[in-house]
Specification:
Bound molecules: 8-OXO-2'-deoxyguanosine-5'-triphosphate, manganese (II) ion
Strand order of the largest sheet: 4-6-9-8-7
Largest sheet: 5 strands, mixed
């Protein structure tokens, strides 16, 4: 860091995938404010604004010390005019007036409550709000038709809005491992998502499943799901087939960032330990679990793509496209200059292809 007078100026790379971002955040007062505004933008389908606030928050998460004065931010990337205004407000007044008024607003509160239902996105929530629905009580009495996911989401609302602990994630990991062992020996299960980055809690648990022999993983998901169902572990599941190989453009470049693995969005019924039993005497709780099956040839890309954070992933793809003329997905890395796929069996290799220093999962918490 450069020193200017008594004020330390930070020097930080502009892409989140060039930075090491641990969970040790020295600026949570600022990043909480910016994250709330990002969330609000996303809930209102203003994705551009959302990303701008997310980038600003991520930049601050990567700083080695607490920011106490605006002068420390001079020359830093990712901080737009609006974000700087919010930061200044927090530094000078302890809170951001925009954040405070957003939190109080009827619309924000309703969007939070309604999108807190599994299966309800910003568009559905907006439609319901325009129909005068602001909370679960009003929704239940509204006569709105809910799909299967939303019904399950409403039924298990409290459980699903209770953070999942690492201990619960590990318990579910053992169940998933047992399931894959029972249906195909040699299959491997890898924890991904926030828990792989070292988070202590999460909104769900994410797992990748593969088999060391290419092709053996085909059709694995329905078998795993059937086993879990037969053992009574599933409260809800929706499985979608792999659509990567059979797409019209062949195994060529995936068109969007949405991947095409065989996957299952589920709600697990997890039996509680004695310590977690509550006054309600309910001996189980509902937990959101994502399962994804990847062929071994794409596994490194799948692991990288499903470890997150979401902003880190977005920045990796932006780096690949803008700086390297490459296209990165959770399936593959394509070099547009050489017009060929770059094979990889580890995350380290992928970072190397991209000309990036390797960032371990615990430092991808952008
Ligand atoms: P949390 O659950 O603890 O709140 O955080 P997280 O684990 O980081 O978030 P997540 O929403 O569970 O997402 C985990 C990773 O999975 C994240 O990097 C984004 C990625 N992911 C999805 N959906 C999709 C998708 O459709 N395609 C790809 N390639 N990745 C996805 O969540
Ligand atoms: Mn997750
Ligand atoms: Mn997930």
């Amino acid at each position: 860091p450069q020193i200017s007078g008594s004020v330390a100026l930070f020097s930080v790379s502009s892409y989140a995938c060039q930075r090491r971002t641990t969970l040790d955040n020295h600026n949570s007062n600022l990043t909480d404010a910016l994250s709330l505004l990002a969330e609000n933008a996303e809930l209102n389908n203003e994705d551009g604004r959302g990303v701008a606030f997310r980038r600003a928050a991520a930049l601050l998460k990567a700083l080695p010390t607490q920011v106490i004065s605006m002068s420390q931010l001079r020359g830093l990337p990712c901080l737009g005019e609006h974000s700087l205004r919010v930061i200044k407000d927090v530094l000078e007044n302890g809170v951001s007036s925009e954040v405070e008024s957003t939190k109080q607003s009827k619309r924000y509160k309703a969007l939070k409550i309604l999108t807190g239902i599994f299966g309800v996105g910003a568009k559905t929530a907006d439609r319901w709000i325009r129909a005068g629905i602001y909370n679960l009580e009003q929704l239940r009495h509204s006569g709105q038709t809910l799909n299967r996911a939303q019904k399950a989401g409403l039924e298990h609302y409290d459980d699903l809005n209770e953070p999942v602990t690492k201990a619960e994630a590990d318990a579910i990991g053992e169940i998933v491992q047992k399931a894959v062992d029972s249906v195909l020996t040699g299959s491997q299960v890898a924890l991904s998502g926030g828990f792989r980055r070292g988070k202590l809690t999460g909104h769900d648990v994410d797992f990748l499943i593969t088999h060391p022999e290419e092709g053996k993983e085909v059709g694995l998901m329905p078998k795993v799901v059937a086993w879990l169902e037969s053992q009574g572990f599933l409260l809800y599941q929706k499985t979608t087939r792999n659509s990567y190989l059979e797409s019209k453009d062949g195994p060529a470049r995936p068109a969007s960032n949405m991947d095409r693995f065989e996957r299952c969005f589920s709600i697990f019924k997890l039996t509680k330990g004695k310590e977690q039993e509550t006054a309600s005497h309910k001996i189980w709780r509902a937990v959101r679990v994502d399962l994804v099956v990847s062929p071994i040839s794409q596994f490194a890309f799948a692991v990288l793509g499903w470890t997150g954070s979401k902003l880190f992933e977005r920045e990796l793809r932006r780096w690949a496209g803008h700086e390297k003329n490459m296209s990165l997905s959770s399936h593959a890395l394509f070099d547009n200059t050489q017009n060929k796929y770059l094979r990889a069996t580890s995350e380290e290799e992928i970072f190397a292809y991209l000309g990036l220093e390797y960032i371990p999962p615990s430092e991808r918490n952008a």
